[in-house]
Amino acid sequence: MSKSKKISMSVVRRLPRYYRFLLELKNSGVYRVSSQVLAEKMGSSASQIRQDLNCFGGFGQQGYGYDVPKLCDELSSILGLDSHYSAVLLGAGNLGRAVLNHVDFASRGFRLTAVFDSNPAIIGTLINGMTVLDVSTLEEYCLSEKPQAAVLCLPKESAEQVADILYGCGVRGFWNFSHYDISMKYSDAVSENVHLNDSLMTLCCCMTASNEDSQIKPNPVKHRRGASKTKDKA
Amino acid sequence: MSKSKKISMSVVRRLPRYYRFLLELKNSGVYRVSSQVLAEKMGSSASQIRQDLNCFGGFGQQGYGYDVPKLCDELSSILGLDSHYSAVLLGAGNLGRAVLNHVDFASRGFRLTAVFDSNPAIIGTLINGMTVLDVSTLEEYCLSEKPQAAVLCLPKESAEQVADILYGCGVRGFWNFSHYDISMKYSDAVSENVHLNDSLMTLCCCMTASNEDSQIKPNPVKHRRGASKTKDKA
DNA sequence: TAGATTGTTAATCGATTAACAATC
DNA sequence: TAGATTGTTAATCGATTAACAATC
């Protein structure tokens, strides 16, 4: 129907980072940036930045570079940050509360509408202006309110079962902090897994490797600062 | 000096997940698994699993597969989970406390030795059996106790400054939850960034893309269940 | 032994980098 | 205009998949 160029996940994962750096530039009053200067700031390559942005359109101007506020807006729109997807949070324990307090859902495209837990000591208490609801009323709630996304901060055991309920009620986006992978089920849903334990083990692995001499290659490809003869790195 | 085969970051990032699935198999009493069966469980490919494991050695046995408990041990050792790296946590706010409560440092190669904060209301209180120390004593502490790693749960503003102190005192591993990238400074340190805001924006982007028809390609390459003619997918 | 499944090499695929014509 | 910097194509590099001989 539309142009429908397939965007690779590698590109998508870089977009929030571009947005973060550009927003910072914008907030410090910078109006213009070239792919080269941005690449230097971000530790990536000018070529990659231009390739990535051109997946979505020609946002720059030859001989000038990119207009920072305009590019911010474009990225915001590509990311869908003005979507206001309705979302519920499952699990109001330590992690759930931290996520609630730490993450700015509104400016990242989501509108948090309810919080659920199974712990009677927590149900009924107030968190961020929302009364914690009993998870046994989840299905009823979802069928009437039709949330589009869910944040899972539950223990592994209940997570799978709760995810099934949510999916059954039409939830098609999952931000999953539970210790299991949601991605393989529900083929028409999208999910983003945040595995803190895996992340910590990765750090451990890298520290161990850098102690021994069994080296791990630096992230994608080491950025060679100023070692090139091409135009891009004048 | 040693074999020193360079391991790519793509492989390293898959190791914790292998470990997670194998531990689960082990705990449910499974003693043996083939790359094919494991691949099916994990939604990856048998070929990739064998390639990945063979970066570190031949842990399997032709005609039999992999011994689950043995492979768990091997992975644990590759990941360095028995390292007991000493670590300090910076920032005992919501996020810091959640990380502290939610993550099992001990079984992931770390030993948490101290918690720091700058908020007078928090300093002196007890968290997980540790008294929260004043961040102004951080340097002093680090010079005498020599922690090897740090968990950063600070706001962006203080994070950079605190990271400099830590690096100056010899800390060479960073688990960074702050809203900035630590990775580019400190070339001889390793760091693992956990950017919750970026992660949420990625989800938003994927939901938006799956609503429109501008598709995002499924993660690495879609696992084609049973669509192959090769031996691996009999 | 025959069957199964690994370790490993070769082929394919995709992502990153380089280069340069277009153009502001 | 001349200089700068993009958009885009081509070349390179790396990661994944396929295939199969080795071998348990």
Mean pLDDT of chain A: 90
Instruction: Categorize the overall geometry of chain A.
Output: globular
Strand content of chain A: 15-25%
For this structure, the quaternary state is: homodimer
Query: What distance lies between the first and last C-alpha atoms of chain A, to the nearest angstrom?
Result: 41 Å
- Name the helix and strand elements of chain A from N-terminus to C-terminus, one letter apiece: HEHHEEHEHEEEHEHEEH
For the largest interface, the chains and their residue counts are: A-B, 77 and 77 residues
Question: Order of strands side by side in the largest beta sheet of chain A?
Answer: 6-7-5-4-8-9-10
User: Which secondary-structure class do the elements of chain A indicate?
Assistant: alpha/beta
The whole-angstrom Rg of chain A is: 21 Å
Share of helical residues of chain A: 25-40%
Number of helices of chain A: 8
| Major β-sheet profile of chain A | 7 strands, mixed
Return residue spans of chain A where pLDDT drops below 50 for at least 5 consecutive residues.
Answer: 219-234
Beta strand count of chain A: 10
